[in-house]
Amino acid sequence: MIVVEGVVKRFGALVALRGMTFEVARGEVVCLIGPSGSGKSTMLRCMNFLERYDEGRVVIDGETIGYEGDGSERRVRRAVDLARQRRRVGMVFQSYNLFPHQTVLENVLEGPVHVLGRPKAEARAEALALLEKIGLAAKAGERPARLSGGQQQRVAIARALAMKPEVMLFDEVTSALDPELVGEVLQAIRGLAEEGMTMVLVTHEIAFAREVAHRIIFMDEGQIVEAGPARELVMNPRTVRLQAFLRRFREGYML
Question: What secondary structure does DSSP assign to 128-151, as a single string?
Answer without folding.
Answer: HHHHHHTT-GGGTTS-GGGS-HHH
